[in-house]
Design a protein that fits this description.
heterodimer, A: 103 residues, mainly alpha, 84% helix, flat, disordered C terminus, B: 460 residues, alpha/beta, Rossmann fold, 3 domains, 17 helices, 7% strand
Chain lengths: 103, 460
Amino acid sequence: MSEAVVWLTIFVLSVFVGIEVISKVSSTLHTPLMSGANAIHGIILLGAIIVTGQAESTGALVVGLVAVVLAAVNMVGGFVVTDRMLQMFTRKKKKAPAGSSAA
Amino acid sequence: MTPTWVQLAYLACAVCFILALKGLSGPKTARNGNLLGAVAAVVAVTIPFFYLELDHVALILAAILVGTVGGVVGARKVQMTQMPQMVALFNGVGGGAAALVALLELGEIVGHGEDVGWFVLLATAFTIAVGSVSFAGSIVTFAKLQDLMTSAPVVFKGLPIVFGIGLLATILLTGITIGEPVLWAGVVLALVGLVVGVLLVLPVGGADVPIVISLLNAFTGLTVAAGGYVLDNTLLLVAGTLVGASGTFLTLLMANAMGRSVANILFGALKGGSTLGGGEASDRPVKSAGPNDVAITLGYADRVIIVPGYGLAVAQAQHALRELVDVLGERGIQVDYAIHPVAGRMPGHMNVLLAEAQVPYEQLKEMAEINGDFKDADVVLVVGANDVVNPAAKTTPGAPIYGMPILNVDEAKQVIFMKRSMRPGFAGIENELLFDEKTTLLFGDAKDTMSKLLNAVKAL
């Protein structure tokens, strides 16, 4: 049972870290933050790879491969789309001085 | 036993994810934070190939390639206005993947007849059930936002009963799985999860859908965390928990910004208190004007505030709007954009949309910052927004949006609404401000009308 307690400890501490790191986010960044967090849980790809690599029947292999595809879409798509959004925020900042002098 | 170097590598990746989330919550560090997360994820995914004797490596790599291409193409092609449904879709497939992984692991446990202990079985059942809920819920959310189905709450008689039966079945099947793991129970659990997911999101009305995306995002995070426990993988546990916790917190923040409770959003429609989304056009008299009249009003003002909404972005009029603001600025008029926290279809969505049109950051004012300025504004131009300026949020206790903080547009000297038609906003309720005597309406497609307005102001 002590091993389960170790896992529980990691879990509880992670909950606090998860809340703490984003507690000061401005509403401007809610969408990219949600999208970025979404990409991070795409790490289930790691689990999908491990399970699929140990599949013993054709049925299990097929299901595993489907899981790998879905997880890869989540992870890769999530990071790319978040970057696309954030790219616009950076471009905007470079543009800012020109805009404010015109105003 | 997992080798020590692997555990340390997972720890390093977990730290990177924490730093990534930290980075994502600040405007200066956001992009690097996201990149750091991406690098950590890619590194983490290569690790099992080095320490485990995996079979079917070629097929797995091919599947990763397929998913990667799908993800990149989807992420590159999507319009910024469709961002909420894209996030919903990515979230859904992640939840689906987690459920499938847990099903396979259950099959493995059953096949080998191992005694893994009840807690692992509980975590497995949790992953299957909640992953399926997240998958099905996200797909329905996607369909609602993509207009593949009505965005109004869907409620049928007996929905609470079916939902209740679904929950009971989930508990029962989880019990069976813990008592004596069998594969069929897992498969049925997944199917029940799909039904519960659909029923959970169907009654949620239009304006609340984005909050549900955030909630389902947190669900998927917790699913991945439980999956990590089942697979004995610390990285999945930490990453999933981080997303689950931050996602839950973010959901509460957003619900707060809209003056709603999460329970009310999810179950409000069942007792008739959610956003109604009727969408009937009114035929009460209003004052309307053409682009030339509006150009004069704007061109001779001293202080103008623009309130952009989702309609602006749908019509792709944000570029013309930015030009208009530039021209007004050249005439010496002080112009700002007032951004409601939930403008657009997702909190923070409008900032992304205006950033796409290269609107300077300094002109974007958050609600708290600008709400005191409306009383000094000569003209407020509302483009494609409705619910976020609806005074019913302050004055009508029965209204679905009652209690939501709004932009104080009603305090301005003059208000111009640029609208397609008299149809109400996403929340489906009438806006009294439209019928106020200081309000003028400028009808037409936002992009078309905006260009006409721009030319008229240039000609002054």
